[in-house]
Amino acid sequence: MAELTAVHGNPLIGLYARVSDDFAVVGIRDGKFESLIREELDVDVVRTTVCGSELAGAMVALNSKGIVVCGHVMKKELEMLEKSFEVLVLETEITCMGNVIAINDHGALVHPDLGDDVISKISEFFDLDVHRATIGGIKTVGMSAVVTNKGALVNPNTSEWELKKVEEVLGVEPVRGTVNFGSEMVGTGVVANSKGYIAGRDTTGFELGVIEEALGFL
C-alpha cells in the first residue's frame, strides 16, 4: 500500500528530502517523516539543513556515487554530509542543485543555463554523461521529474523529444504524470528510490497508479 504523508502539513515532501538507494538527506526535524523514509525506502537518513535551508530536497542532488551542493553550504553542514557522502561543492550562481539536476546512476540532465565548466565538474565527479535539457518545457528538471535507477515520473507536459532524451541519458523509460491532485511539478510531491516511494498527502489513487507504473513498482 502506498504511503502518503505531509511535512508539518505540507504535501510538497520532495522539497524537504532527496534520496539515493543508500541514503536520504532530510532538511527538517520531523521524526515521523524521517522514520517513514528510513522504513519505506530502506536508507540511512542524514538530517541537516543545506545552505541554512530546511529545503534539502531542493538544495542537493545525489546518486550512489555522491552528492552535489552549492558553494553557500555551511562548514557544519558540509562536515555532516561528508560523514556519509563524497561531496562536490560547486561555485555557481544557481544554488538549488536539487532543482536543476535530475540524476540517477546512469546519467544526468541539468538546467540549460548551467555553464560548461559546471557541467564538466558534475560529469567528472559522478563519472556520467551530463546533458542540458528541459522537462515539460521547464528548466528546473530536478523538480519537473522524479528519477530513480528503475524509472522516471515526469511532468505531464513533457514532449516526445524530451521523453526520448530522458530515456537515452538516464536509461529508464519515463511516464508522464502528476502528484498532489494535479500538480505538474512532480518532484515536489514524491520522494523515491529503486526500493520504494512516498507521495504527498494530496496524491489521488489514480496518480498513485501512474507513479507505481513510472517507478517500476507494478
From TrEMBL:
GO terms for molecular function: translation initiation factor activity. Pfam families: eIF-6. The keyword Protein biosynthesis applies. PANTHER family: TRANSLATION INITIATION FACTOR 6 (PTHR10784). Belongs to the eIF-6 family. Binds to the 50S ribosomal subunit and prevents its association with the 30S ribosomal subunit to form the 70S initiation complex. This is Translation initiation factor 6. It comes from Geoglobus acetivorans. The gene is eif6.
